[in-house]
Amino acid sequence: MGAGAQAPQAAGSSFLTVAEVATLMRVSKMTVYRLVHNGELPAVRVGRSFRVHEKAVHDYLQTSFFDAG
Fold first, then answer.
1. Is 48 within a domain?
2. Strand order in 15-17's β-sheet?
3. Nearest to 25 by CA among 62, 50, 66, 68
4. Which of 26, 49, 54, 56 has its CA 20 to 30 A from that of 62?
5. Residue 34 domain-assigned?
6. What is the pLDDT of residue 34?
7. Among residues 69, 67, 15, 64, which one has the least CA distance to residue 26?
8. Residue 7 domain-assigned (yes or no)
9. Averaged pLDDT, groups of 10, the chain, 69 residues long
10. Does residue 31 sit within a domain?
C-alpha cells in the first residue's frame, strides 16, 4: 500500500482505536482500557494496542442504559 492508502475493511466492519472509543463514549482512555481488561468490552490486540469493533461499542452502550425514571 502506498502512503495515505487505507486497508480495505471487511464487509462493513469497522474497528476503532481506544482513543476513538473514548471519544465516542465520552469517557477517558483509561476507562476504555479498564472495560477491555475487565472483559466488559471485547477487543483485539494489534501489536501493542487494542482495537474495538464498532458493534461491540454499540452493544455495550445498549446493555448499559439505565432508566432513572
1. yes
2. 15-17, 49-53, 44-46
3. 62
4. 49
5. yes
6. 98
7. 64
8. no
9. 53 87 98 98 97 97 85
10. yes
Kind plus residue range of the DSSP H or E element containing 49: strand 49-53
Q: Which helix (H) or strand (E) holds 56?
A: helix 54-63
pTM of the predicted structure, to 2 decimals: 0.77
E strand or H helix at 36, and its extent? helix 29-37
Domain with 54 in it? 15-63
Domain count, the chain: 1
Q: What's the half-sphere exposure (Cβ side, CA atoms, 13 Å) at 52?
A: 26
Give the pLDDT score at 17: 98
Please provide residue 46's backbone torsions phi and psi, each rounded to the nearest 5 degrees.
-125, 105
Instruction: State the cell numbers at 52.
Output: 474495538
